[in-house]
Amino acid sequence: MDAKQNLANAIAPLCGMDASAILDWFEVPKKAEMGDYAFPCFRLSKVLRKAPAAIASELKEQLVLPSGFSKAEAVGPYLNFYVDTASQAGSVLQKVLSEKENYGSSKIGSGKTVCVEYSSINIAKPFGFHHLPSTAIGNALYRIYKFLGYRTIGINHLGDWGTQFGKMITAYKLWGSKPIDDYSIRELVSLYVRFHEEAEKDPSLNDTARAWFHKIESNDPEAMELWAKMKDNTIREVKVTYHRMGIDFDSWAGESFYEDKMGAIIQELRDKGISKLDQGAEIVDLSEWNMPPCIIVKSDGSTIYATRDIAAACYRKQEYDFCKSLYVVAYQQDLHFRQFFKVLELMGREWVKDCTHVNFGMVSMEDASFSTRSGNILYLDDILQAAVDKTYAIICEKSPDLEDKQSAAESVGVGAILWSVLYNNRIKDVSFTWDKILNFDGETAPYVQYTHARCCSVLRKAEDFDFSSPDASLLDDPYAQTLLKALDAFPAAVLSAADKNEPYVVSRCIMSVASAFNKFYYEQRIMADDPAVKAARLALTDATRQVLANGLNLLGIQAPERM
Ligand code: ARG
To answer: Ligand 1 atom 1: the closest Cα is on which residue?
Structure first.
């Protein structure tokens, strides 16, 4: 149980208060030598009609100190409490080492469902660097919620519908040189680029494209087959990239999935008088909320992105009965989300309050040689590969004897990229330099992974030594104490990350564990001569290894044992 609660339970009866009423009164003294918790007795002086200092010293006399505390001291108007470091150390160690990979997990989500929509790439378009934040943040949130006991549904809301597919088919019919199955994403992208170049010269191509899209919409077999194959090719290819990042989805229902689900929505909007006709289009007027209208049906009769999002939100509620539905999408779409959430609210879907646009800032690349490659389009795959190659070179230098350098380079290179968008407040723009993200001594994934591998290496050296019943009172040096505090903070960090939808709370927490461990490692000999001290320090090392592994796992980052 929580230390503050124990103190409140012990003090409350002595002053005729409820424990719950005084729970929030506790403060943390500014100076460590003043103890770990302070109880401000002046808040009682009116009720008890005594001077605060007198209350403090009387309470001290009467109080039975709860377990987990070593002493209480009355200092002026305060009663200060000192945590019994040995017993605290013991309970943290014991908790981590017994719960293992479940340390930090919880059951608060059991029986509840969270939908997490992330990555949501577009078919026949590059899986670009700009998709990195959505992909990495969404995957981390998916893992964090799962760890807290929620049923989680990961959704890739594919951009697989729209007039661009008419353009793609037109281009393929005119300039395609091999079966559509053989087209890679990059080749499909060049067809698309060529379409736009040629349509500048010959605008009638746009009419052909519209006609082809119309054929898709009306289920023409040839059009459908070409569309479906472009989609298959894209999915096959992006799955390789997702696999590299350890990412998968429970649902790949993209925009096209809602084609037959929009009719009911459009009808409901009409029936309830929420939409209205405006120059041939059907719109929902949102001027009352200072927003431009949300277009539902265009004047040519076609639906748009927003219509599909309204249908998708309703479908997710019906299908999954979520308690939260998250959309990990760039802040550029803030207005779009505010608009369609408002339309859902006007439709009486009170659950829209559980839908959250989890937005994020921009990523940019400072490596000029990179951004000019392939016509300004940065493919995520190229970036992952470059990171792995650069990491390989670093590992060759740092650990020439390592056996499987390639697999370590893969885990660390990919981890460095993911971490770069998981270490700050989401909304902060990230500008990306190789030196920064691959710095093994910086605030990076490689640093945390390296620390994890260091713990594993220490533990390997002590393989035959039994440290299963450590005496935690021997971990009384300040380095071990700081490390224990960092380990203790992990479960709360996981909860807070979910509460804020901010994975950085977890990455910052394990960063502080890693740096506390390294200070401990440099200042203290883990393999101490005294076997009892050695056992305690090895147990602490094992607990550190566990927390780093759990944290990295929540972020979707590998924790190699050797590097
Ligand atoms: N495919 C879109 C894009 O790349 C993102 C989709 C976001 N999700 C949504 N439900 N609107 O811009």
So the answer is: 159
